[in-house]
Design a protein that fits this description.
heterodimer, A: mainly alpha, two-stranded antiparallel ribbon, 4 strands, 74% helix, 3% strand, globular, B: mainly alpha, ABC transporter involved in vitamin B12 uptake, BtuC, two-stranded antiparallel sheet, 2 strands
Chain lengths: 287, 288
């Protein structure tokens, strides 16, 4: 029972991250390997506020979301103005820089040892001590995130984003600002990633840099690619499937020393195979 | 005197980085693919050489086998992955994701076979120290890196301006359509380009780990720095990429006087942001 609860909680958090990556990669069409960095920033901010008793959970989560929005805009804006390929460099750079900060800024982030003992989340002055109510909170967050994503994609703004994917030039000719639409999508992606970070930190009550490194960013990308780009269903299927993968791998007898590498190897194979044979993923649209 | 030593170290790192930048730029300017998996080829070269040395082969043989293996891997990535994606008219984003997938596959195969721990080369002659000027010391490996990198740079310059194939590659790079019409067969040329670039990146791929040791995930930072050098130097300019790689390595090394080494990625990225803001086309891009 405990296993299923924690699986459901983690999957909910990763659905939020999947939505975030999908907005950026699938919808805005920006290659990104730095979503885990944004996720990490959200997690560390919430952890800092809660551990130092500065404020309660919800305001901390809001601040984390706002910071991640700002971060994502800051990251996207200059790259979008220049050229698509330069964003690859920016994205890798941000990710490596973030890992360097998480690992080496010992005073703020606890360094490689991480931050243990993050207090559980609280809602309206009541602490959620037991794991089932924390699961409820994360599932609630996921449902809210999916609802927002669905509403946004139905709204005129969502249609604008779709149109940009079809023909960027035509949209620009119709007098819409492509840059502004893409940056808005990136901002929304930041809000999702920041919220997911806050939920992650309080659920695990321990965070360290290894959860927010390049490999995690690749995992997020794999989730979107496997699930399918640009659809709500894709962003839900991907995380649920890929989070089950480590459990399946424990059934196969692999030495523990290479378990992490084997997992990453499978992500790589999935990325290649889906790009070659099914770029729309299981339930998505053409990338 | 520390500054002078760092200056020399910067030249050594810069030369090695310059070859990574040249080889990446070679692929990028011809195929227009942002070949992230190049970092994997770079890493694999070192591991192959290490295995050969462990099995008792002499160093030159180990080096040549590593170069051959990298060449084959590069050609395989082009024919097995990029050419197929191109046939399916895959978008740029799809090719990028596939390339990232290839990088993950190569790195993690290496990590599964050799473990993720750091591996050191066991070459006694490599760490023999020479005193150059004053008390600046360089190891044999470092001197070898500079010599090989400069030789590789010269070879690339000669190749792309003095040979038929080099001229064909430049023709395909500047106008693939016209190249197709004049029967230059861009597809085949792309395979050559990937093979040559992969052979080239194997040179620093073997020489750098001689000093610093091997790790499966160590290819990304040099590749990122090299791409920044390529962009800052101006895409398509071989000399630009090489010079800027040395400049960036110098700045990184000199910054060690003021800032601890674990922040050097920040310095690199700072240079990139400065270029993005003030000269996004790069320094040597006037020719294009």
């Amino acid at each position: 029972m405990d296993f299923w609860l924690s699986y459901l909680t983690l999957a909910s958090i990763y659905v939020l991250l999947g939505l975030s990556t999908n907005l950026l990669v699938g919808i805005a069409g920006i290659f990104s390997v730095s979503q885990a960095a944004v996720f990490g920033v959200g997690a560390y901010i919430v952890a800092y506020f809660l551990m130092n008793d500065v404020m309660s959970f919800l305001p901390a989560l809001a601040i984390a979301a706002v910071c991640c929005i700002a971060l994502n805009i800051l990251v996207t804006l200059p790259a979008l103005r220049v050229s698509g390929d330069y964003f690859v460099v920016t994205s890798f750079g941000i990710q490596l820089l973030a890992t360097a900060v998480f690992t080496n800024w010992t005073d703020g982030t606890g360094g490689a040892n991480g931050l243990p003992g993050i207090p559980p989340p609280d809602l309206f002055g009541k602490a959620l001590e037991d794991s089932s109510s924390e699961t409820m909170l994360c599932v609630g967050g996921m449902v809210l995130g999916c609802l927002i994503f669905w509403l946004v994609m139905r709204a005129p703004f969502g249609r604008l984003l779709r149109a940009i994917r079809e023909d960027e030039l035509a949209v620009a000719a119709a007098g819409k600002s492509v840059l502004r639409a893409k940056v808005s999508a990136a901002a929304l992606a930041g809000a999702f990633a920041g919220t997911a970070g806050g939920l992650y930190a309080t659920f695990l009550s321990f965070i360290d840099p290894s959860s927010f490194d390049l490999d995690s960013s690749i995992l997020l990308l794999t989730m979107v690619v496997v699930g399918g780009a640009r659809t709500l269903a894709g962003s839900i299927i991907g995380p649920f499937l890929l989070l089950a993968l480590p459990q399946i791998l424990t059934l196969v007898d692999i030495p523990t020393t290479i378990a992490a590498a084997a997992r990453q190897l499978i992500y790589g194979v999935l990325l290649i195979a889906f790009m070659l044979f099914r770029p729309q993923g299981l339930a998505g649209e053409k990338l | 005197m520390l500054a002078l030593q760092l200056l020399c170290n910067g030249i050594v790192t810069g030369c090695a980085l310059g070859i990574v930048a040249i080889s990446f730029s070679f692929v990028y300017s011809t195929t227009k693919i942002f070949h992230v998996a190049h970092a994997g080829v770079y890493t694999m070269g070192g591991y192959i050489a290490w295995s050969m040395l462990e099995h008792g082969f002499p160093a030159p043989v180990a080096f040549l086998v590593a170069v051959a293996a990298c060449t084959a891997l590069g050609a395989l990535i082009q024919t097995g992955l990029y050419a197929r994606l191109e046939q399916r008219r895959a978008t740029h984003l799809v090719v990028l994701i596939a390339s990232l997938g290839a990088l993950a596959v190569i790195q993690n195969i290496l990590a599964s076979v050799y473990s993720a721990n750091i591996l050191q080369f066991n070459l006694p002659w490599g760490s023999k120290v020479f005193t150059v000027v004053g008390d600046v010391r360089l190891t044999v490996t470092q001197l070898l890196t500079v010599v090989c990198s400069l030789a590789a740079y010269g070879a690339v310059m000669w190749f792309s301006h003095g040979t038929i194939l080099g001229k064909q590659i430049r023709a395909v790079a500047s106008n693939p359509f016209l190249a197709e019409i004049t029967r230059l067969r861009p597809r085949r040329v792309h395979v050559y380009v990937m093979a040559i670039a992969s052979a080239l990146v194997c040179v620093p791929g073997v020489l750098v780990p001689l000093d610093f040791g091997l790790q499966p995930y160590n290819g990304i930072t040099p590749l990122l720095t090299a791409t920044i050098a390529m962009i800052a130097g101006g895409v398509g300019s071989i000399t630009g990429a090489f010079v800027l790689a040395i400049v960036i390595a110098e700045l990184q090394n000199m910054s060690l006087l003021f800032i601890p080494g674990e922040w050097s990625i920040g310095i690199t990225f700072f240079i990139f942001v400065i270029f993005m803001l003030f000269r996004p086309t790069g320094l040597f891009a006037a020719a294009r």
